[in-house]
Amino acid sequence: MQNFEIGDKVTAFYKTGKYIGEVTGERPGAYVVRILAVLKHPRQGDLHNPADIAVPLFHERKALAHREQANMPEKMVKPYDGEIPDYNETLLTAFSDMKKQLETDGSPHALKSLEALAGVQREYELMYGLTFQS
After folding, report:
1. 3-class DSSP state for residue 125?
2. pTM for this one?
3. Which of 47, 121, 41 is nearest to 87 (CA)?
4. Is the dihedral of CA 52, 14, 64, 37 positive or negative?
5. What are the distances in angstroms from CA 37 to CA 55, 66, 93, 116, 134?
6. What residue ranges define each of the domains in the chain, with the CATH number in brackets?
7. pLDDT digit string (tens) for 120-130?
8. Which residue of 11, 28, 38, 115 pairs with 90 in a disulfide if CB–CB is 3.0 to 4.6 A?
9. Residues 6 or more apart from 109 whose CB is under 8 A from it?
């Protein structure tokens, strides 16, 4: 198991999203990571039934916010060596990549996910002043 110090730059997975961040603390079995960039946007829907749309609550899942801190399980944290890209740019790219993937899928889950992403997009536009390509 990798040991990280406060201030180390890392990548981390959290609820299907992948991020670049900085270790700010340690908890039993987890590191506290401050989010600096988004590498993979979280999937929409139920984490426990990933392709199912007939679930009690189909989650609309946003990426962790810039500088938000989250407890990341130790095994999901890896070292990162490189420049830290701009949060807003990485969020736009990760969101667009997910949206394109869903648009080519066409499954009921993909269609439901696209509906959820429309709401997420509106929130990003308000929160960060982002403009999305159509």
Report:
1. helix
2. 0.92
3. 41
4. negative
5. 30, 7, 11, 22, 22
6. 8-128 (2.30.30.430)
7. 999 999 999 99
8. 38
9. 45, 50, 51, 52, 53
